[in-house]
Amino acid sequence: METIIIIVFVIGYFCIALEHPIKINKTASAILTGVLCWTLYALSSPTESLTNSVQFNDFLEQLKLQLGDKFAALGQQELFRSFVVSELSHHLASISEILFFLMGAMTIVELVDAHHGFRYITDRISTKNPKTLLWIICWVTFFLSSVLDNLTTAIVMVSLIRKLIPNKDMRLFFAGMIVIAANAGGAWTPIGDVTTTMLWIGGQISTVSIMKVMFLPSVICMLTPLLFLSFTLKGELGETQEHHVKHEADMVKGGKLMLILGIGALVSVPIFKTLTHLPPYIGMLAGLGILWVVSEMIHPELDDAVKKNYTAAGALSRIDVPSVLFFLGILLAVGALESMLTLHHFAEYLAHTIGDNRIIITLIGLLSAIVDNVPLVAASMGMYSLDVYPMDHLIWEYLAYCAGTGGSILIIGSAAGVAVMGMEKVDFIWYARKISFVAMIGYFAGAACYLLLEPFLGSGVH
Amino acid sequence: MEIVVIIIFVIGYLLIALEHPIKVNKAATAIITGVLCWTVYALMDSESIKHIGEQLGHHLSEIAAILFFLMGAMTIVELIDAYHGFRIITDRITTKNAKTLLWVICWVTFFLSAILDNLTTAIVMVSLTRKLVPDKDMRLFFCGMIVIGANAGGAWSPIGDVTTTMLWIGGQISSVNIIKTLLLPSIVCMVIPLIYLQFTLKGNLGHDKQAAETGDYQKTHFRGSNLMFIVGICGLISVPVFKTLTHLPPYLGMLLALGVLWVISELINPEMDESEKKPYTASHALTRIDVPSVLFFLGILLAVSCLQSMEILSHFAAYLDNTIGDNRIIITLIGILSAIVDNVPLVAASMGMYSLEAYHMDHMIWEYLAYCAGTGGSILIIGSAAGVAVMGMEKIDFIWYLKRISLLATLGYFAGAVVYLIIYPYLAVHPPVN
Fold first, then answer.
1. How many Cβ atoms sit within 10 Å of the Cβ of residue A139?
2. pLDDT of B340 over the 50 cut
3. pLDDT tens for residues B227-244?
4. What is the ipTM of this complex?
5. Low-confidence ranges of chain A (pLDDT < 70)
6. Angle, alpha carbons B230-B233-B238 (nearest 5°)
7. Chain B partners of A88 at a C-beta cutoff of 8 Å?
8. For A92, which of B38, B56, B64 is closest by C-beta distance?
9. Does residue B434 lie in a domain region?
10. Which stretches does DSSP call E strand in A381-442?
11. Predicted local distance difference test score (pLDDT) of residue B434
12. Which of chain B's residues have a Cβ under 8 Å away from the Cβ of A84?
């Protein structure tokens, strides 16, 4: 059964990648893949390795506590079914956290945009040279992403370039570079990226050490593709001048206020998390709620029909719900693979056949372009113990780099990529042709840089 | 600290009820209420933060299961509507007699609402009466009956109504049993007002000035509409079947149906180019679903789940038990209350008040709750999503509804309730022990 599920996953993956030739929306393929994987999993019988696993036995212990006497009456198949349902509910919780976070962030950005709030930033960037602009955008993304999470950074930066670059073809290259820069920028700080944060919370890496050794490799990872594009990028930003002047006259009331509130809301999400220890989506929803109320209050003179464009209800009709459902489908599918321990087995298989940790981790980074990097890092954290590999050991730091930046190689390899795909309708194939190669060069350049630097800057733990 | 959370909840609730006078969208208020409740809870009890995080994760997973179910269902309905699929039903109604038409409309609403959610049913049926009943005064009575019919029809099927769906997803009721015990009470709830109007309704349907145009309109056949209607309805009906076979939560079945319908909608018109095809794809249907409602549910359910985690609700239930005593009276009151406040938080609160250990699946109180919360909202026009939608579409006045329909709806509500309380000892799988 495990093989069938893997086959379903692979076919689903191909349908997503070949969205345009086969003319089936990727969201439909993703949803079907996710649902089919879980259905097959629920209908299968438990495998040996699953029933022997820690997860399964932990679950049985808990169930025994809950049910008491009734526990003994349950057969193997019923136990397995309730295990699958509880796994699914566990995955759904973490998936929904991401989705509601995404919906909140997208709505906030749309709301600021409806009030033309981003014009206060874009008006300041006056360069007309695409290459200069590309450098500015990349560096801003890189440092923004080291503070904010990659997803929010990508959303903010893409909504900026929408205003700065009217030319669609040119904008796609910028969007691709934003994905690379957002992922690279997240890798070197403990709060910039989910996977680095996981390793930091788990005690595998320490703040100062990871920033010291990882900064240069992350910069290289972004800089190499940037240099490449500096020489090859051709074309114009496109004409904005006339629109610009027109809009200047009818600047929407409250634009500045909405921009400050919007950016403030996004930036305060990590602060909210630190203060309350609640998951980030709650902070994002708090920001959205406040912006929503303000957006309804600042236009008391407009009637309902005109006002609708400037309220969150209007903004919500413009956010990309298909992308949200796409994310739901693909994360459900990966969740099924993770729950069946397929990913775990694969990582173990790699460890046994290859041997050298550095090569394994490089491969894990490449793999994270196909599947979600969170379960991959979780699996690696389970594979290597802290007793054998102490804090700030080479493999943890290298893992933080690889899992953080490897996702840039395919557009669906990282959360930032998926968000950009939804916002700018970047095609999977287009990205694979134009960006994947440069992203991969950057990935390997950064990796080589880390492996060279590590003996000098690293903690020396081997 | 509990008091602070309760005060936040009550203020949030008042602001939601006063959405129109204060001009703040209820989704915004609901989100802020939900977030504030959890923030206060997390800040006051920072030692057990890990436990609170687990509780929140657990609730989020349940809430998300409801929300994705709703989003799937709403998209499927929008997609069928984009293909004019509902005309298969509406084209068949040709009668010109007001009373006959009222009976036909009510029964169609009743059974349509059992499959679709009440909101969609009300929207589809009101747009239909606009074509069939040109006389404005007469149409208002039809609209009032559509609200009653839609709410009554939703109560007895697990996929017909948000509240019944919540109880079904939560494992409080099972599909076969709820249909068996609630079908008759729901019918009575609708038929009583209907019989009353049968004797008192006066006037005629009026003349349709655009009769000729309508004739033309009905002739034009839309490609794929039959197919989309059949696949869509089968998809919706197969959700309970999927749950029974796989034991997976219903939202997965709904997503499966959506995925299949989505693929069909993309394959059905191969000759159209992208821009022509756009209005007929699921991506476009998704832009028309009511995302603010989804966020409203998210906010209000988060707030209720916080009260539940703090065990405020179970204390309140114990208080009610002690002062009133009889569960049946309490739930009847909840039903009447649902005419004033939204029934989703009411049911969510009741689900938190009574535990599944004390009241097992298909217990009388769950079934009766499904009936009361589902149909009690008809008593006032603002009491149900269907009512609010009809109010928006047909500009029904709150006071007009109160004068002409509320009394009928109340009669129907109590008649159905009595029928349920009489018949459940014979039909229920778990007859009362006493």
1. 16
2. yes
3. 888 998 888 888 878 887
4. 0.82
5. 69, 239-252, 304-305, 458-462
6. 115
7. 248-249, 252
8. B64
9. no
10. none
11. 39
12. 247-248
Of all residues in chain B, the one with the smallest CA distance to A67 is B357
Task: Indicate yes or no: CB of B28 within 8 angstroms of CB of A321.
Answer: no
For residue range B55-107, what is the model confidence (pLDDT) as tens digits? 899 889 988 988 898 888 888 888 888 888 877 777 777 777 888 889 999 99
Burial (0-12, 13-18, 19+ Cβ within 10 Å), A350: middle
Which domain range does residue A112 map to?
97-191+217-321
- Which H or E run includes A209? helix A207-232
Q: Crossing angle for the helix pair B26-44 and B291-309, nearest 10 degrees?
A: 30
> How far A78 CA sits from the closest chain B CA (Å)?
10
In a domain, A271, yes or no: yes
For residue A96, list chain B residues with Cβ-Cβ distance below 8 A. 60-61, 63-64
Question: Which of the residues A26, A41, A268, A285 would you substitute to probe the B interface, choosing the one with the greatest number of B C-beta atoms within 10 Å?
Answer: A285
Q: What is the radius of gyration, based on Cα positions, of chain A? A: 23
Q: With an 8 Å Cβ cutoff, are B25 and A292 in contact?
A: yes
What are B252-281's pLDDT values in tens digits? 999 999 999 999 988 887 766 767 777 788
| Residue B197: pLDDT over 70 | yes
Q: Is residue A178 part of a domain?
A: yes
Burial of A275 from C-beta contacts in 10 A (0-12 / 13-18 / 19+): middle
Residue to substitute from A27, A31, A303, interface B, most B β-carbons within 10 A: A31
**Is there a contact between A393 and A462 (Cβ–Cβ < 8 Å)?**
yes
The pLDDT of B2-20, averaged and rounded, is 85
| Neighbouring C-beta atoms of residue A64, cutoff 10 Å | 13
Nearest to B147 by CA among B372, B408, B364: B408
Percent of chain B with pLDDT over 70: 93
CA gap A440, A445 in Å, rounded: 8
B403 closest CA partner among B119, B141, B123, B20:
B141
What is the reported pLDDT for A233?
Answer: 81
Structure tokens at B387: 């009512």
Q: What is the pLDDT of residue B428?
A: 66
How far, in Å, are A243, A250, A264, B152 from residue A246 at the CA level? 5, 7, 28, 55
pLDDT confidence bin for B430, thresholds 50/70/90: low
In this structure, is residue A102 part of a structural domain?
Answer: yes
Q: Are residues A137 and A154 in contact, defined by beta-carbon separation less than 8 angstroms?
A: no
Range of the domain at B292: 2-427
Percent of chain B scoring above 90 in pLDDT: 23
Please report, in angstroms and rounded to a whole number, the separation of the first and last CA atoms in chain B.
Answer: 40
B211: pLDDT strictly greater than 50: no
Q: What's the rounded mean pLDDT across residues B347-352?
A: 84
Nearest to A201 by CA among A394, A413, A388, A396: A396
Q: What is the pLDDT of residue A462?
A: 52
Question: Which residues are CB-contacts of A245 (< 8 A; sequence separation ≥ 6)?
Answer: none
Residue B125 lies in a domain: yes
Query: DSSP letters along B236-275, please?
Result: HHHHHHHHHHH---HHHHHHHHHHHHHHHHHHS-TTS-HH
Q: Which two tokens stand for residue B126?
A: 């009101």
Q: Is residue A452 part of a domain?
A: no
- For chain A, what is the domain count? 1
Query: Measured between CB atoms, does A201 come within 8 Å of chain B?
Result: no
Nearest by Cα to B13 from B45, B37, B40: B37
Taking the C-alpha atoms of residue A116 and residue A163, their distance in angstroms, rounded to an integer, is: 10
Output the pLDDT for position A181.
95
CB of A45 within 8 Å of any CB in chain B? no
Distance from C-alpha of A379 to C-alpha of A375, rounded to nearest angstrom: 6
The alpha carbon of residue A329 is apart from the nearest alpha carbon of chain B, in Å, by 9
Residue with tokens 């065990």: B311
Domain count along chain B: 1
